[in-house]
Design brief:
By secondary structure, the chain is of the alpha+beta class. The chain contains 8 helices and 4 strands. Strands 1-2-4-3 form a 4-stranded mixed β-sheet. The radius of gyration is 22 Å and the shape is elongated.
Length: 266
């Protein structure tokens, strides 16, 4: 076998490896999106549906998302150390990985339903951006580099779990009496509590997408409070377009440190 034959064979294997990793990442994103949709759908419901969806997202982060992120950090990124044009990209990807971990931590520790839904959407946006850069920018660069076998790297990547252990119902699911979620409990008593989303600490690059996800979780006739660092007029226009104009906005505070708005789906 000549050197050219080896190079051609290696390129074919690496090309197949790129396709394999892209398919793996697409599956991961699809699963995460479906689990996130379940969280959004359950925000305004009574009963254990939201808690179950919340636990399912956390389980998938632990068993599906984090293993892929670790594999990228431990296998794919080091392989690019000899590819000059990929070094800055990898530095950025490492920073984005930290943002994903921060979003995952917020999902785990927050207790407000709309805040959790917003963090789930933030994680989805960040994960989609990071995996897209790995699949569309970093892997092709590695495929062109000599001395790097993407086929070997792909063989070491963890599989996406086909099934996750069923989440055990938490204390809230077994609580006796009238537990009131954000959507009411069905006992005839009105729940006046309004979910609040403070976006001042959310990275600007994903702030609008986070609000979109949170407002998507607000049922018709319900409201949420948005806290922003400035008057979010462009965001309000985008929300109106996304909702087909089915949004009512009321200002409860107009700066100078924070703008508080009541967003109602009508």
């Amino acid at each position: 076998m000549t050197t050219n034959d080896v190079v051609v064979a290696t390129s074919a294997a690496d090309s197949a490896a790129v396709d394999d990793v892209r398919s793996r990442y697409a599956e991961l994103l699809g699963r995460q999106a479906a689990l996130g949709a379940a969280v959004f759908a359950a925000v305004g419901t009574a009963g254990p549906a939201f808690d179950d969806a919340h636990r399912a997202v956390q389980a998938f982060i632990d068993q599906g998302v984090r293993p892929q992120l670790r594999a990228a950090v431990e296998l794919i990124y080091p392989a690019s150390s000899g590819v000059e044009r990929s070094r800055l990209l990898v530095e950025g990807l490492l920073g984005e990985t930290q943002l994903i971990e921060q979003a995952a931590a917020r999902i785990a520790r927050d207790t407000d339903r709309v805040q959790i839904a917003a963090h789930v959407e933030a994680l989805r946006v960040l994960l989609e951006a990071l995996l897209g850069k790995v699949a569309d920018l970093l892997l092709p660069a590695l495929a062109e580099a000599s001395g790097v076998s993407l086929a070997d790297l792909a063989a070491q990547l963890p599989a996406i779990p086909s099934e996750l252990p069923s989440a055990q119902p938490g204390p809230a699911a077994h609580a006796h009496g009238h537990g009131h979620g954000h959507g009411g409990c069905g006992c005839g008593e009105e729940n006046e509590e309004m979910p609040e989303l403070d976006v001042r600490e959310i990275p600007h690059a994903i702030r609008h997408a986070t609000v979109f996800g949170a407002f998507d979780a607000v049922p018709v006739g319900a409201s949420m409070i948005l806290v922003a660092p400035h008057d979010p007029i462009p965001l309000l226009h985008q929300l109106a377009e996304r909702s087909g104009g089915r949004i009512a906005v009321g200002y409860e505070e107009r700066g100078p440190e924070a703008w508080r708005l009541r967003l109602t789906r009508v």
